[in-house]
Amino acid sequence: MDPKLYIEKLFEVKQMPVAPHQAALFEEFCSNASYLEAATDILRKQQLLMDAWSLNNRINDIKRQQVMIPNGTVGKVYGAQLDTTGWGWQDLVLLELEGLEAIGLAYDPETQQIRGIPEQNGDFKLKLKFKVTGEAEDAVPNEKLIPLIINPDPKSLWKTTPSDNTDPFWKADETAVSAPLGDRHIVAASKRGRSHANTGAFRDDDFAFAHFATSGWSVVAVSDGAGSAKFSRQGSRIACDTVVQYLGNKAEGGDFAELDTLLEAYNTNTGTDLQKKISLHIYQALGGAAQQAYKEIEAFAKEQGAGIRDFHATLIFALVKKYKSGYAVLTFGVGDCPIGLISKDRSAVHLMNKLDVGEFGGGTRFITMPEIFRDDLSGRFGFKFVEDFTALMLMTDGIYDPKFEVEANLEQVSKWDGFLRDLEGDNADLARVNLDADNPDIATELSVWMDFWSPGNHDDRTLVIIF
Amino acid sequence: MNGEPIEAVKNGVQLMISSLRQNPQAIETAFISIITFDSAARQLVPLTDLASFQVPDIRVTGTTALGEALRLTATCIDNEVARTTMEQKGDWKPLVFLMTDGMPTDDWQSGLAEFRKRKTALTVACAAGPKADTGVLKQVTDNVVRLDTADTHTIGKFFTWVSASIGVSSTKIEHSGKEVAGLDELPPPPSELNIVV
């Protein structure tokens, strides 16, 4: 502002306006250099006050501004760019960012990036020292606290608490076995998931198998107890044991003699009539076994004064027999555990059962639900006659979820081949299961392999391989 | 809600997130979204994984658009919670925690009707302070908790409990829901039985 104009305005504000007849006098007054200088001085000081005030405001706004930088995780490479443009900090000079060293990170003022691998978890407050354009060179830097969240490494949070082995339905937290199975071999492992180990809960999964030498039939069963049911670990055990025992008794008792005749003829004659007869046998034998499992659990529940719902468990099982021309594989399944039959040359896979999956995660059906038997059972059976095979696999969702993820992948041979290669050592841990009948460590190898890490997948894991 | 209660809610959310981050199951699997409602409802934070989640500045003033909040929650569930298909793994059913300190001021019943069509694993409503109407909340869910005072301590306790509920590991559940009792014999096979493939 012109100093002369300022003086005129000042007089006006102070109610001594320059009247028209005083114009000449005012002109003369303003020709005095010292008066003009005084006005210039006042104007300069006013400007100084205004500048200082807006600077203060700006600094205060910056301090209060909520800025977010991405969270980090212990042990994981971290990189974050300070978004000074996005935050509207064009007038800022960033000097230092303190508090990073203790976390294991560093700030690069050149690029305005935070980099490094966090070593500590927690809610940290970083101290940003900055200056705003217009501040004196020697002014004390301003400070702003910026929150930084470092998550713990999830792996470090899992605890292993043994389950209570005095519980009446206790079972070992993990188990692994291998054995000959007729002219083939079987390896099976089942272990408690991290989510259960973390709280000292029991393993809910189970499996059972047997070979019946007289009849030549082998039976293998896998069951996954529902996490929401309090005695499901017992439900899964009864389900597996019952099926193996029931079908073993039938086989050894000669009940499958007619089925044997039909299956022997199957390879040369696949007429509809023969197929229908075989179907009926499968329905009665395997359906009977499934129903027996239901009945046993129901009776046991009654004995315990509990509801059958408390024993909810899924159930898959397979009957296998070698004939002159090949192997007959008969299956039944309730729940979300798949049975896969991989061809001899690994070029094809046959998914033996359809999974019961709900709209949302975790939803499935159980052998302990009476409506299973009321609804049409026929979709629950599977039958395949093959000359030879690489592997017949039964697994619980603790394996299927991380390794196959979605149902559609179970139909893809490439996924199964990848799964086999994973077992053969193609994995991050280089854990290898040598599927060789003469390998004495095979059960241990499978158990070790089963410790694989998969974020969010910490359910009980059970895998049975007939090879 | 303003003053001490909203500050307490903010602190409570902060505390809840910090404690959930120490739960291995939660940090690998839990996703969180925040919807606020006053004169209108808005989704403050979309469904975000716990590891990336940051507590926003929560500010509410004005009236209590509960109906709009319920309707928005339903829409968000539709858009953000994945259903199981052959090609996609479904999310676990959502847990919904509703907190209010006043009487609804909008047409809450139509919002509730919309919300009811969505499946939640658990819905908990919390009446914070003496002015909230538990009668209304009882119609939203059977699980209603009342905090007699909406102070820092009480609200803090509520959030501690919420954290524990989210922290429980996801478990297998029945998806049919229908109850049929008793079972004697295997029903006769259907006439068109054909298993052979």
Which features does this protein show?
heterodimer; A: 467 residues; alpha+beta; Immunoglobulin-like; 3 domains; 12 helices; 33% helix; 26% strand; B: two-stranded antiparallel ribbon; 6 helices; PPM-type_phosphatase-like_dom (chain A); Protein phosphatase 2C-like protein (chain A); PPM-type-like_dom_sf (chain A)
Describe the structure.
The complex is a heterodimer of chains A (467) and B (197). Chain A is an alpha+beta fold and 467 residues long. Chain A folds into 3 domains: 3-64, no CATH class; 72-157, Immunoglobulins (Immunoglobulin-like, Sandwich); 174-466, PPM-type phosphatase domain (Phosphatase 2c, domain 1, 4-Layer Sandwich), CATH 3.60.40. Helices cover 33% and strands 26% of the residues of chain A. Chain A has helices at 3-13, 23-30, 33-64, 154-157, 194-199, 232-252, 257-266, 272-304, 371-374, 397-404, 413-423, 442-449; strands at 72-73, 78-81, 92-98, 105-108, 113-116, 122-132, 142-151, 174-181, 184-191, 205-212, 217-224, 315-323, 326-334, 339-343, 349-351, 363-364, 381-386, 389-395, 461-466. In chain A, strands 8-9-19-18-14-15 form a 6-stranded antiparallel sheet. In chain A, a hairpin with a 4-residue loop joins strand 10 and strand 11. Chain A is rod-shaped. Chain B is an alpha/beta fold and 197 residues long. Chain B has a single domain, classed as von Willebrand factor, type A domain (Rossmann fold, 3-Layer(aba) Sandwich). Chain B has helices spanning 4-20, 24-29, 66-80, 108-116, 134-140, 152-167; strands at 31-37, 41-49, 95-100, 122-128, 143-147, 173-174. In chain B, the strands form 2 sheets. Chain B has a 3-stranded parallel sheet, sandwiched between helices. In chain B, strands 1-2 form a two-stranded antiparallel sheet. In chain B, strand 1 (31-37) and strand 2 (41-49) form a beta hairpin. In chain B, helix 1 (4-20) runs parallel beside helix 6 (152-167) and helix 3 (66-80) runs parallel beside helix 4 (108-116). The longest helix of chain B has 17 residues, at 4-20. The model of chain B is unreliable at 169-184 (pLDDT under 50). Chains A and B meet through strand 7, helix 4, helix 5, helix 8 and strand 16 of A and helix 2 and strand 6 of B. Chain B: InterPro entries: Tellurite-R_TerY, VWF_A, vWFA_dom_sf. Chain B: Residues 1-140 form the VWFA domain. Chain A: Residues 164-466 form the PPM-type phosphatase domain.
